[in-house]
Structure formats: C-alpha cells, structure tokens
Amino acid sequence: MTLRLTASFGAERRRLPRSPASGSVLATFSNDGRVGVAGIELIDSSACGLGVRSPLPATPGDLLGFHFDDTVLPSRLGRVVRCERDGDGYRIGLVAATAQAAA
What we know:
Strands 4-5-6-9-8-7 form a 6-stranded antiparallel beta barrel. Strands 1-2 form a two-stranded antiparallel ribbon. It has strands at 5-6, 10-11, 19-20, 24-31, 34-45, 49-54, 63-67, 76-86, 89-97. The chain is mostly beta strands.
C-alpha cells in the first residue's frame, strides 16, 4: 500500500480515490444523546466517504445526518472517523453509515 502525505491529516489512508466536491448542506450531529445542527461545506468525496468543513467539532464515532431537502429525517448518514481544527472551523472525515432501528 502506498502512503501519500497530505497537509491536513498526515499520512493518506484512503483506499479509494477521492474527487473534489463543493456546496453546502444542513447537518445534524449526534452521539450519546447530544445533538447539534450546523451548515457544513463539502470538500471531497469517494465511493465510501466524504470530507467536510464544519463550524462544530465532532468526535470519531459521531453520526452526521445530511439534510439535502426540507425533511426532518436526514437523506444520508456519515460516521465520523476523524476531526481536525482548520482555522475557525473543523475538517471532518466521514465514512458512509446506515441508520440503526431503536430496540
């Protein structure tokens, strides 16, 4: 496996190529009963994940719900795999996630 160095997250760990992404979307942050809402910017995407920039920090394992339309339920979910300070915000790496039904 070849490692590429990047300025923001150190050694490149992605197995799939990524492409630049742009735009903004409303996101809900949730973990352990905590919930936050913020507008986030899309940075890049791959077949199994996203890179975003957020005004709110996130912890690995948190779920982010993406609200691409005006519905209460998120259109897509991502699980945080890393979060780093970036100027006045945070760069967050996400892997695609699926919702789990309440038991």
